[in-house]
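Tutorial handout. Part one gives the primary structure; part two gives the three-dimensional structure as tokens.
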Amino acid sequence: MQPIVTGFFHEPSQTVSYVVAEPNDHHCAVIDAVLDYDPGRGRTSTTAADAIVAVVQTRGLTVDWVLETHAHADHLSAAAYLKERLGGRLGIGVHIRDIQEYWRRLYNAVGAVPPDGSQFDRLFEEGDVIEVGAMSGTVWHTPGHTACDVTYLFGDAAFVGDTLFMPDYGTARADFPGGDARTLYRSIQRIQSLPDGTRIFSGHDYLPKSGRTEHAWQSTAAAQRSSNVHVHGGVSEDAFVALRTARDRTLTPPQLLLPALQVNIRGGRLPEPEDNGRSYLKIPLNTI
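Part two.
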């Protein structure tokens, strides 16, 4: 089965969101939607999410699922907004509980964010099946970038989030709380073991420093095995861990890390308004 996949590139965060429709184009899932956020003004907007809404409505699609591959550190999630506008159930991997436990303490939001995943409609375990109309998908737990990363497999398409980027760019960082380069390598080996022609859809495209100039987000399992610059065939686990660890030491935190996580552990919802009717995002000082 070949699902119909439509990608939406969000330039500010270089994120790719997806509408994944069954072959008859009646039912769909939305994966990794972005809520626009201007940190200078402290304003959210729904421009990127509304582009998804327009396509779904124009095609007459029924949204069965709004899915997250993980709790993103580089953009705010529009999952709650899309669920409100389009319906469907909100899903993420069960290990979101681990992410919630860490970040709610950082934000001093222990009472406001129970670490039980109740902010989502479904917490996926390894091997769970997702129904999108007549199309069935499978969930793989593929941690390493974070503890809660999952890959969604629908027919010949794998949605890997931030685990793998285009082959000429490489792989996800593994230095977030709960991340681990060795675990990431093993998750990648599993994804690369998929049949050669499996379409691999990545969650970002940052463009390599030389070569390609147009954004892209679709590769194949064969291309990832043969030419991923970090983890092509023949790269040992120890070599990858050394490369990934050294590279991660040079990286700065994502610009929206602190605003994003307190929204994303809530399933894409802003913190509850305070007694003046306004919501606030906290910035913990001297912690990162």
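Part three, for discussion. Residues 237-249 form the longest helix (13 residues). The first strand starts at residue 4 and ends at 10.
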